[in-house]
Amino acid sequence: MEKTILVPFDFSEVSKEIVRIANDWGRRTDAKLYLLHSSPNSFFIGSHFRPEDRLKHITDFLEDINDLTSHEFLTPVGKAYINVITEAKKINPDLIIMAAHDHTIVGRMLLGSNTDYIVHHATCPVYVYKLAKKKLNNIILLPLDFSDINLKVIKMADEWAQEIGAELAFVYVGTTPEFVHLNAEFNFDWVDLEDEAVKKIQTERFEKYVNSLEIKSKFSKHMAFGRPGNEIVSLQMTIGANLIMMAAHSHTILERMTTGSVTDHILHHVHCPVYVYKH
Predict the structure, then answer these.
(1) CB within 10 Å: which end of the chain, N or C, has fewer?
(2) Integer Cα distance of 85 and 92 in angstroms
(3) Do the domains 137-277 and 4-129 match in fold?
(4) Longest Cα pair distance anywhere in the chain, in angstroms?
């Protein structure tokens, strides 16, 4: 249960929606919100907007959000993504709720987007809000990897689904010898088997695992083979899931530079919110 939620925002309309989401979340879990607005060092240079008026500008921006729950404003100056992680180290939040904004490919290559940086460096779960391009269904998509941390996400998602009346959709992206380099869990004893035999082994494992979970919510099962990020994004679009819940796993810098992590790929390509669990 969250007791502290860190909410980075700017003066965009999507940020206002983020604060509304965080406010509802805070009320449901009785959590305190830390609303963080970061300004660049040069923000006030040559501007009629005085530093002493900044808090008033913020409160005016949020005035149409009714009954704002227990909260505190944080107003650091500097790079937004650095300030989020710095403040997170101070307040130790149980959750970060933030919006994903579009960035150029060049920007991501040189510095990384705010979203990438925060998801990679935060030590708590991060809920990344992304605008949907079409009406979505009340389905929580859960990628599986059979890890202990993944099991925690599954249990959390089941409880959440029961609370909001959602359906769960489990997906496991299996590996054939063609994609062995993309899946650290691949069993090298299978390399000499035919693709269909490998697929059968993994499908049976997936079915057995899901059936052992004792899920209370309504759920569906989806098996795919190929590149995990691509297959998960494709399935989200097909079933219209309105949320992806997944566990973040550590990856080396080299892996991110060459193929990119599954989490990165999903965050960059889906058009629905993503809850990234970290511990």
Answers:
(1) N
(2) 10
(3) yes
(4) 70
Band of the pLDDT at 29, cuts 50, 70, 90?
Answer: very high
Q: Is the pLDDT score of 107 beyond 60?
A: no
CATH architecture of 137-277: 3-Layer(aba) Sandwich (3.40)
- Give every strand in the sheet of 4-9, ordered side by side: 71-74, 32-37, 4-9, 95-99, 126-129, 274-277, 241-247, 137-143, 167-174, 219-225
Token code pair at residue 4: 């502290």
Q: Where are the alpha helices (DSSP H) in the chain?
A: 13-29, 54-61, 80-91, 105-110, 114-121, 148-164, 195-211, 228-239, 253-258, 262-269
Give domain limits for the chain. Answer: 4-129, 137-277
Q: Quick check: 110 pLDDT over 50? A: no
> 25 or 105: which carries more pLDDT confidence?
25
Assigned token pair, 91: 């307040």
The answer to whether the predicted template modeling score (pTM) of the entire model surpasses 0.70 is yes
Supply the mean pLDDT for the chain. Answer: 84
Record: fold of 4-129: Rossmann fold (3.40.50)
Number of H helices, E strands in the chain: 10, 10
Q: Is the Cβ–Cβ distance between 1 and 40 less than 8 Å?
A: no
